[in-house]
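Shift notes (night). Ran tRNA (guanine-N(7)-)-methyltransferase while the centrifuge was going.
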Amino acid sequence: MLVLLFRVQSLFHYPTRLVCRRPITPHRMVTPSSPRCEPSLPVESNCWISIWTRDRLRQGFIRHHGQMHAQPEMRLRPATPVTVRSPASPNCGADSYPSLEPCETNRPEPGSEQSGAARYLPVIAFRTRHSALSQAQRQTWERLWPEIGISVVPQTRSGERLDTDAWFGRSAPVVLEIGCGSGTATLAMAQHEPDIDVIAVEVYRRGLAQLLCAINRDQVHNIRMIHGNALYLLQHLIAPMSLTGVRVFFPDPWPKARHHKRRLLQPATVELIADRLLPGGVLHTATDHPDYAEQIAEVGDGEPLLSRADGSTQLPIATVRPTTKYETKAQHAGNIVTELIWKKRS
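Came back to this:
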């Protein structure tokens, strides 16, 4: 009686169970006619369990040691041929696929309209996140975003440069902050320097919504925001020699070696930033990742248009920043924050 109950229970709980005389390799195709395995139920039976088992066997699936496997030829898809152009190839001009490194064969002059554009791979230096806005944030967004914020969509680019004088309603030095997060440092530094216009760039909508609510609460008038990719913004919307400063605080370090290509501050990106800075402009960076700090220092020192600033260097913008929530967590974890500042050569 117990044996019969066990057999009935096994039929309902393990409809694809096979009784194999010898072990089966995970990628071996098993068919009902295979002499090595016998289905526990007759395959040609009218029982719904047998029909389901037969269909699974025909699709190439078996249950082996508690796991479902399929034959390799059913799981793999044919690779799509891809043509890769080397950055040093003679046809790597503006009509070719953009490369991460500058093209030496068709390198535009520094400060020209083509400098820094259509020569860089669109690096994805941020992670995808989706978070909903609160009701108050949505209401503030709908009311204030059309006035002090824009969303950059690469597919709808018009080719026109950003007119900061018309956007801010005055002519003043402009500082671009890449990755403002929730805007703690952005708001404090903008309040400390009311004569400087700040453009905060962020890909996460919720962080911009938090900054937007803080701007509305404190009535700050020298901050504008852009929702989009900062690298695309630098390439197509920011004119050469138009920025007084660029701030990059705690960019994503992408610690894994295979992800280092996603880091924002690459040689080509630093060259692009230097091209957009005015003579005497400032590149201010901060990170709590030691390996990333070494890379940033090497890349910044290797850019011929930039020189490292020290305590005696006169800078056009302030470099004193508040301690953010992220930096506080990094300090509690024992991480050392490294700040690096460069000034563009005259």
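Residues 135-344 form a domain with the Rossmann fold fold (CATH 3.40.50.150). The longest strand covers residues 277-287.
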